[in-house]
From TrEMBL:
It comes from Methylomonas koyamae. It comes from the Bacteria. This is cyclic-guanylate-specific phosphodiesterase. Residues 24-276 form the EAL domain. The lineage of its organism: Bacteria, Pseudomonadati, Pseudomonadota, Gammaproteobacteria, Methylococcales. The chain holds residues 808 to 1083 of 1083 of the full protein.
Length: 276
């Protein structure tokens, strides 16, 4: 069939493919509009220490859509990354998080909270990434050590030289780094040692079956031991049950995040949690 219709025409008129292209262009236009109309929102998911005290939160982006309601990051981050819109979006996330930290400074209850912000590869690779973080820190006037940037292993390894320079510059002014989804990538010990990483964040996939799957048990034990040897602390993501929390704590995990302590929620709900 393709041959009959000729080389250059068939694919273009494939109705399914055309539908995909239309859907994508629609989503692309939606994303641009969402940014212009300020329709991104941040949800806050508690991070807790060994005595279950909330010491901060990870900020997780969502997009408000007039018809579809709240759109999850899995449905727009990859496309935003592809078309470069992730840079202004990521900038907005950082600014919003730092402004929130500034607001919290006024009250003794919230003064020392930390916020963890996800950074995307394209955003991090921009030549002015360090400058833009420095500018936001200066403009908001927060203590840089209250900001934690979450990077993934693949981001870090993609251009290790550029990564080292940027991480060291930011570490030099007090910003901290967490390795997100740790254990799913290929970082070697020698790479990890080159980088000023404060924290390893154990990926949810290892936490899920930690009690039943001996492989996951060993992986988690190894990650925690490695972190300790490198002088880093460890947080586990996706902690859903008390049994998982207890097991992780027994093996030396310092901090926890997951539905057991709270789902990601709007700022008002998060502040209500702090007051309970
Ligand atoms: P992530 O950074 O690994 O974030 C953790 C994800 O796990 C979040 O999904 C969170 O809602 C979910 N989660 C937390 N605890 C539990 C749990 O106990 N059980 C289960 N099943 N899930 C849990 P979310 O909010 O849908 O975000 C997905 C991903 O989107 C994030 O993964 C991150 O990679 C990306 N993302 C979110 N916000 C941003 C952002 O502001 N910028 C960038 N570049 N990426 C973002
Ligand atoms: Mg994260
Ligand atoms: Mg993660
Ligand atoms: Mg994850």
């Amino acid at each position: 069939q393709a041959k009959k219709a000729g080389k250059n025409t068939v694919r273009f008129f494939d109705p399914q493919m055309q539908a995909n292209i239309n859907a994508r262009m629609q989503l692309e236009a939606d994303l641009h509009r969402a940014l212009a109309e300020n329709r991104f929102v941040l949800h806050y998911q508690a991070q807790v220490g060994k005595s279950r005290e909330i010491f901060g939160a990870e900020v997780l982006i969502r997009c408000r859509h007039p018809e579809s309601g709240l759109i999850a990051p899995k449905d727009f981050i990859a496309l935003a990354e592809e078309i470069g819109l992730i840079t202004p979006i990521g900038q907005w996330v950082l600014e919003t998080a730092c402004r929130q930290l500034k607001k919290w400074e006024a009250s003794s209850k919230t003064r020392h909270l930390h916020l963890a912000v996800n950074v995307s590869p394209r955003q991090f690779r921009k030549a002015d990434f360090v400058d833009s973080v420095v500018r936001i820190l200066r403009e908001t006037g927060i203590d840089p050590s209250q900001l934690k940037l979450e990077l993934t292993e693949s981001l870090v390894l993609d251009d290790i030289e550029d990564t080292v320079v940027k991480m060291q510059a930011l570490r030099g002014i007090g910003v901290r780094f967490s390795m997100d989804d740790f254990g799913t990538g290929n970082s070697s010990l020698s790479n990890l040692r080159k980088l000023p990483i404060a924290q390893l964040k154990i990926d949810r996939s290892f936490v899920r079956d930690i009690l039943d799957d001996p492989d996951d048990t060993v992986i988690v034990q190894t990650i925690i031991a490695m972190a300790k040897n490198l002088g880093m602390d460890v947080i586990a993501e996706g902690v859903e049950t008390e049994a998982q929390r207890a097991f992780l704590e027994m093996h030396g995990c310092d901090a926890f995040q997951g539905y057991l302590f709270g789902k990601p929620v709007p700022i008002a709900d998060f502040e209500a949690m702090l007051n309970r």
